[in-house]
Amino acid sequence: MDLGIRDKVAIVAASSxxxxxxxxxxxxxxxxxxxxxxxGKDQLKKTAEEIRSxxxxxxxxxxxxxxxxxxxxxxxxxxLNKYSQLHILVNNAGGPPQGYFESFxxxxxxxxxxxxxxxxxxxxxxxxxxxxxxKWGRVVNITSVAVKQPIDGLILSNTSRAGVVGLTKTLSNExxxxxxxxxxxxxxxxxxxxxxxxxxxxxxxxNISIEEVLSAMEKDIPIGRIGKPKELADLVIFLAxxxxxxxxxxxxxxxxxxxxxVF
Length: 263
Hints:
Elements: E1 9-12, H1 18-29, E2 33-38, H2 41-55, E3 59-63, H3 69-83, E4 88-91, H4 106-134, E5 137-142, H5 155-174, E6 180-187, H6 193-206, H7 210-219, H8 229-239, E7 250-254
Parallel strand pairs: 1-2, 1-4, 2-3, 4-5, 5-6, 6-7
Helix pairs in contact: 1-2, 1-8, 3-4, 4-5, 6-7
């Protein structure tokens, strides 16, 4: 299927590894011109070279922290300087620390909001005028199944990511007339560094092995296994494409059936 996005321009945040890298690779395979960004300069450079060699696409790599407003503005500015356009924005960021309500200070809450909510808002603020100008835009936010089914011990993530859902639904209505579509994709258990970190934390808390934690996770997934980054990336890429032209304001989980609720 031709997704209709060859030669479009995309920013994929936090994309040196994990889910962001899988999304960036998939977009490049569709002929999209990319900007990727992350904090780790060496890994970012390695990822950019890998994407270029495998796909032949243009890749601009920018060392940036998505919780830093100035860094976000620089990412968008340098993207426009290189490509002159911006069509697709994939918001992505790591998760805040594990823990329970009384273990976090107000500063911890502020950092979580900066990482998972304010970064999304700032990227959209910087990108939206350019998408309006061309009457075409796709914004896909990678959140978490926590927005549909809060996860014990992840109160910072449960709260900060839920704000992204409200933002997305509101913006989908506000900018539909400009052909700018907004959607959320919610990863369940996917084989990334984040899952390993969560498993390590739970193993330590329960005094069991990481393997036992991962095995217990798999038992909660009807498909019976932890997902692969590409399985989430495929949905993100579709929602970022011309083929998703009548889909906006949705929040879709990719979780092997992990979420038990109807909606």
